[in-house]
Design goal:
By secondary structure, the protein is an alpha/beta fold. It contains six helices and six strands; from the N terminus they run βαβαβαβααββα.
């Protein structure tokens, strides 16, 4: 096993209605495998603030907790995947991130976002101005090691194929239900494998 110094810190970004506790099992799993794992609580987490504002919270956390020269690996769950993309694509995060793993993120939106009216929910609707803007230059994400993990049995990301994006390595899992994507053993294995890619080649 590689020493900890050869691994980047891993920051976990949760989704709507959730807090960092959704990652307890994943955090324990990755820590046991040798990663230093971090997470924060985005507030408010009910979809009533814009994804840009949440991304700025993420950027502020990173600036406060990590040296500017420290490369990072990011894991974004559901809405957290879009928040992370905004950080990468609009707040300069791509300059310091080596790996980005999106888990059940609605890259092309989700129809369930029509059931709520908060700013963030409107931004997660298919065809929203926010998504159109991010997807216009999504190819920039090909500069980093980008993996999108999803399941056809999602039911929150509708259609589930919205979690597919051409800029990412596609990992399709047979996990039942959206909430299990942060805890199922196959998801944990997929995250571990994505974080381990080219580990020895990083400088």
């Amino acid at each position: 096993m590689n020493s900890n110094c050869s691994r980047n810190p891993v920051l976990l970004i949760h989704g709507i209605f959730r807090k960092s506790g959704i990652f307890n099992k994943m955090s324990d799993h990755l820590t046991q495998l040798g990663w230093s794992v971090y997470s924060l609580n985005l507030t408010p987490n009910w979809g009533n603030t814009s994804l840009e504002e949440l991304a700025q919270q993420m950027a502020d956390y990173i600036d406060t907790n990590f040296d500017p020269q420290q490369p990072l690996d990011l894991v974004g769950l559901s809405m957290g995947g879009l928040v992370t993309r905004y950080y990468l694509q609009r707040l300069g995060g791509i300059k310091r991130v080596q790996r980005f793993i999106a888990i059940s993120a609605p890259h092309s939106g989700t129809w369930t976002a029509y059931t709520m009216w908060g700013k963030g929910c409107i931004q997660m609707r298919p065809g929203s101005a926010f998504l159109e803007d991010l997807n216009r230059d999504a190819s920039v994400l090909e500069k980093i090691n980008f993996t999108s993990i999803w399941t056809p049995w999602d039911f929150i990301i509708v259609p589930a194929s919205s979690s597919q994006i051409s800029a990412a390595k596609d990992v399709k899992l047979s996990v039942f239900a959206h909430a299990m994507m942060a805890r199922d053993s196959s998801s944990l294995k997929a995250v571990d494998e994505a974080l381990s890619e080219h580990l020895n080649m990083d400088k």
